[in-house]
Amino acid sequence: MKTTILTAYAVCASIFAAAAQQTYQITGLLKNQGNEKIILTYFDGTKNVSNAVEAVNGSFTLSGPSPAQPVVARLNTGVDRNIYLGEQKNSMFIPSMPLNVVLSPNCKLNISGTAEDINIAKVEGDAYNESFNALRQAEGNTEAQMTQLQKDMIQLRTMGVKDGLGDVGKKMLDNRNASIAIHKKFIKEHPAALSSVWLLATSAREYSTAELQEAYNSLDASLKSSYLGMDVASRIKIMSAAATGGLAPDFTKPTPDDKMITLSQLKGKYVLIDFWGSWCAPCRASNPHLKELYARYKDKGLEILGVASEKAPELETAKILWKKAIEKDEMTWPQVINNEAGMKVDVVKLYGIDAFPTKILLDKSGNIIARWIGAESKELDEKLNTIFIK
């Protein structure tokens, strides 16, 4: 009996040891990487995980404990790839995009490409990552084109040049529509690919609630039970609650002078909720136009409520950056910050915001009547003109 128990214990210990020894390994060679760091970050379903290593002449090896289920990680380089919009590196910038890499138990991956374009590097090793290679191939150069168009738009605005804004704005809209079409087609053609559920989770904003539900229903059952699938299901619930035509979820947040504003207190006016951040170059570039709209329609019954989401890890730093941006951009309409000590309500999650800037228009009764994403919105101008110019 004792021998049997000891044998069973040994078998169990062996099984647990084998599970504990499951690791991932990523090797790679990136041109122009030099000896800069390679940084890997991911969410394992319960917490954020990070790992980093210094490359040697562009060559690197990253390894660590495997996540319990396949996850989409972000691999980035310490080489500064941000596009800065001022002479100093603390100015506004368009953040560089990372490379999406799937980590699975005991995976062994190899990455090749350049540090400057790490986001489109090739990942070899398993079917999960092959599906992301296929997605990157389907996207072509739409992402690079959008980055350049954003840079062109913001530079024109910061220089005060109005000629050409309409042309660049149209190109941005065309690019965005082309990208959306590519993504929707990819998801439809690859319902069992992890890249599809990831794409659905990260581009939910491109879908109406009904479209998102339909796309989610088409996914393989195994994907629905993944943490990404559960995230999509959660987003559908949020979007249903904050859908156009419904009553806007109420919230209370602090102002720059530490007073509190409750959204429902603004009923009786049309309210444009502007989700932005001091770090967000497209958000800041849209502020001059918001100033024009506020001056034009404030006395006619429009109120704008800025809701800032800051990226600084420390609250006090976030508040300083927020207040400086308000002052510099001369934003005279009410402002609140989503970041706050002991935050009870995350307004960004409450409204299903996953792109900045996003603007949501409420009628006098507090119902959501329209929603726009991005710095340029001809539809916003037309909507306000229809409401106030009679």
UniProtKB/TrEMBL annotation:
Major place of residence: other
Keyword terms, alphabetized: Cytochrome c-type biogenesis, Disulfide bond, Redox-active center, Signal
GO molecular function: antioxidant activity; oxidoreductase activity
Matches recorded under InterPro entries: AhpC/TSA, DUF4369, Thioredoxin-like_sf, Thioredoxin_CS, Thioredoxin_domain, Thioredoxin_ResA/DsbE_sf
CDD domains, A to Z: TlpA_like_family
Gene Ontology BP term (one): cytochrome complex assembly
Top-level taxon of origin: Bacteria
GO cellular component: cell envelope
Domain Thioredoxin, residue spans: 242-389
Leader sequence residues: 1-19
Subcellular location: Cell envelope
Protein name stated in the entry: Alkyl hydroperoxide reductase/ Thiol specific antioxidant/ Mal allergen
Organism: Mucilaginibacter paludis DSM 18603
